[in-house]
């Protein structure tokens, strides 16, 4: 499978990040790893490229972060979805679903 180009990847970053935080808090590296795993390698982010998006989403109030220190590990910032973030996730899912349905129909794409 070909990797997703940067423009499409960057346009979907918010949705992908919010979806990874839906069930539990995660740190940046874990978010990036889950996106790659769940996409079967079709979408991948360097953890460092996610941090500006995470910081912006935190400023928007969609996620909340807190530092966690564990013995023998580096300090990590764990992010969790807020109530506002859950609403944003639902809105983005709806918007992306409509967009993808239109794309499939217009371009003659079929589900894999």
Please, could you describe this protein's structure?
The protein is of the alpha+beta class and 112 residues long. The chain has a single domain, classed as Orthogonal Bundle (Arc Repressor Mutant, subunit A), CATH 1.10.10.10. The chain contains 4 helices and 3 strands; from the N terminus they run αβααββα. The protein has helices spanning 6-20, 28-38, 47-60, 83-107, and strands at residues 26-27, 63-68, 76-81. The protein has a 3-stranded antiparallel beta sheet.
**Separation of termini?**
12 Å
State the CATH class: Mainly Alpha
Low-confidence stretches: none
Q: What would you call the shape?
A: globular
Question: Characteristics of this structure?
Answer:
single chain, 112 residues, Arc Repressor Mutant, subunit A, globular
Topology at a glance:
Layout: H1 6-20, E1 26-27, H2 28-38, H3 47-60, E2 63-68, E3 76-81, H4 83-107
Antiparallel strand pairs: 1-3, 2-3
Helix pairs in contact: 1-4, 2-3
């Amino acid at each position: 499978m070909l990797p997703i180009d940067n423009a499409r990847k960057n346009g979907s970053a918010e949705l992908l990040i919010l979806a990874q935080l839906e069930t539990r808090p995660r740190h940046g590296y874990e978010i990036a790893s889950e996106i790659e795993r769940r996409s079967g390698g079709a979408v991948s982010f360097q953890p460092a490229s996610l941090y500006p998006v995470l910081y912006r989403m935190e400023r928007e109030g969609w996620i909340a972060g807190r530092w966690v220190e564990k013995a023998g590990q580096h300090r990590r910032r764990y992010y969790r979805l807020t109530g506002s973030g859950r609403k944003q996730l639902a809105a983005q899912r709806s918007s992306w679903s409509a967009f993808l349905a239109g794309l499939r129909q217009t371009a003659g794409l079929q589900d894999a």
